[in-house]
Amino acid sequence: MAQPGQFIMRIDIITVIPELLDGPLSLSIIKRAQDKGLAQIHVHNLREYSTDTKHRRVDDYAFGFSAGMVLQIEPIDRIISQLKAERSYDEVIYTSPDGETFNQKIANQLSLQENLIILCGHYKGIDHRIREHLITREISIGDYVLTGGELAAAVISDAVVRLLPGVLSDEQSALSDSFQDDLLAPPVYTRPAEYKGWRVPDILLSGHERKIAEWEHAQAVERTKRLRPDLLK
Ligand code: ADE
Questions:
Q1: pTM score > 0.90 for this model?
Q2: Which atom of ligand 1 approaches the CA of 143 most closely?
Q3: Is 130's pLDDT higher than 70?
Q4: Ligand 1 atom 4: the closest Cα is on which residue?
Q5: For residue 171, how far is its CA from the centre of ligand 1 (angstroms)?
Q6: C-beta of residue 1 within 8 angstroms of C-beta of residue 32
Q7: What CATH number did the domain enclosing 86 receive?
Q8: In the list 64, 85, 90, 101, which could disulfide-bond 113, CB 3.0-4.6 Å?
């Protein structure tokens, strides 16, 4: 349950392929966050806002000579206007390889917001006036091109929702995640303590809390230096 005074984060995702989001947002921790009333994720099928009642088309040929279909402005303006008439939004995000690269800092920022819209990008793009007039933030999940922005929207929603208070238990606490302090997480082990002669480091079996914490920190620093030295700059 959300605590008194705690807001329920709402994410509205706009897509032409809602089925692509079914799995990632309806299982495991993200499902539990919604069941516990800590977050609401609403997926909207853009075709329902088409101006073409017969074929429900939402794209059209690009002006000029570029090949391919482009998402039209009107269906997107219709749904965003309808959502904005119901509540105010902190950000209207567009997922695109052109955007700022998503990272833990952006996830932390977004987790402090109350209402977000995520418009999923489309392989040949969307009418540029949408980006100029309706979008407040463009986010990429990395320097590679996906067929559409749905998987990016799922990645962003997952990374943000797990940070909301009450979503993770204390043991899973997001504060100990890789990247929260610009360090990779230390290695973890479970039983058996020895398997095929491969042993868990003795220190972890020692029961000595302070020494274990020091060892974990040293491991985090060593792993970060070796694997992601860029994070230490
Ligand atoms: N759409 C296509 N590629 C993408 C990416 N890398 N990040 C976000 N949205 C995208």
A1: yes
A2: 6
A3: yes
A4: 97
A5: 32
A6: no
A7: 3.40.1280.10
A8: 90
- For residue range 51-91, list pLDDT tens digits in order: 999 999 999 999 998 888 999 999 999 999 999 999 999 99
Task: Write down which residue in 161, 189, 224 finishes a domain.
Answer: 161
Distance 147 CA to ligand 1 centre (A): 8
91 lies in some domain: yes
Q: Which domain-ending residue is among 111, 126, 161? A: 161
DSSP string, 214-227: HHHHHHHHHHHHHH
Query: Does residue 188 lie within any of the structural domains?
Result: yes
Report the distance separating Cα 65 and Cα 104, nearest Å. 39
193 lines ligand 1 (CB under 6 A): no
Task: Work out which ligand 1 atom sits closest to the CA atom of 141.
Answer: 7
Tell the burial category of 122 from Cβ atoms under 10 Å away from its Cβ (0-12, 13-18, 19+).
buried
Q: How far is the CA of 144 from the centre of ligand 1 (A)?
A: 7
